[in-house]
Amino acid sequence: MNNLSETVRRITGAESVVLGDVIQSLWSGYGVIQRATLHGTERPSDDSAMPVVIKHIDISRARANPRGWAGDLSHQRKVRSYQVEKSFYEDFSERCNLRCQVPKFIAADELGDEGGWVIVMADLNFQGLDSRKSHVEQQEIHACLDWLANFHATFMGNSATGLWPIGTYWHLETRPDELGAMPEDRLKNCAGLIDRRLNEATYQSLVHGDAKVANFCFSESDPDRVAAVDFQYVGRGCGMKDVAYFISSCISDEAAARHQESLLDFYFEQLQVALSGRNSAIHFPDLECEWRELYSYAWADFCRFLAGWSPGHWKLNSYSQQITQSVLDNIDQS
Ligand SMILES: Nc1ncnc2c1ncn2[C@@H]1O[C@H](COP(=O)(O)OP(=O)(O)O)[C@@H](O)[C@H]1O
Ligand SMILES: [Mg+2]
After folding, report:
1. Given this model, what pLDDT does residue 2 score?
2. Of the residues 76, 210, 230, 333, which has the fewest C-beta atoms closer than 10 A?
């Protein structure tokens, strides 16, 4: 029997597991994200077939890779990212309601002998969230910002135990190679300051950490509904990191400049509603004031990563350059 289906059967308690389509291969083929159907689970439902998605990383194969392992920072970052994703589904995902929907967690396991991880979650495609988009209109952009606002409200003040102490895949401390590769300029000199400013913000929540439009699942019948996947870089942080990065993933520089204020207004309205629904003791005007100022810092922080990782990247455009320059000017004046 296939090892993966046997593992999934064991951890879910299903009578049988039928593997389906591979969605994509992960991490140079060391893992896979794949559909499956569980049969004979204890779920009280009329037909007992449960559609799931399995995320499986076989770390023993990654370790066998002769091309540098122990000293390879990017491998270590990846390994940690899968542990973090498993922790998120096990210990945090249940707190996400339909306003910041995530796949329902079913089971996960860390495999023996450093074998890797398996995460089993509900298949969102069977919940009407079967559309993926690279081009989005205002209604979908708002749906994603609403998701982010609700996610940030849900985890406001959370200490991120078991997740990244500082979220996002481009966080400075985890990217020394990219910092080294940057041209010797003001942004490089200010990288630590920008990072510190974000980390020392009074208001911290959990950030998704890779909230690009490709990690949102949309519904054709209800454009206000979205769910997010891919929690490998979730950790503590200022919500502006997700907002800036999300905008960078789906809006042209010209549109980002033109709509910056209205998008932020929308996000903060949703955040306020979401927080008030939680009887939060937070003084909202203080939070909004702090985070609005940090929006530019979040952009500058992301541009710092891009400038080392992929200097000619299309996201290093007039809008992001101008916003980064405004942060550098601000630092000069303080
Ligand atoms: N629970 C799920 N239900 C439906 N589709 C999913 C689910 N989890 C992942 N996917 C799809 O698989 C894609 C890849 O998963 P993801 O976790 O983002 O892997 P990667 O780390 O390679 O980006 C997602 O963009 C999404 O389209
Ligand atoms: Mg993804």
Report:
1. 62
2. 333
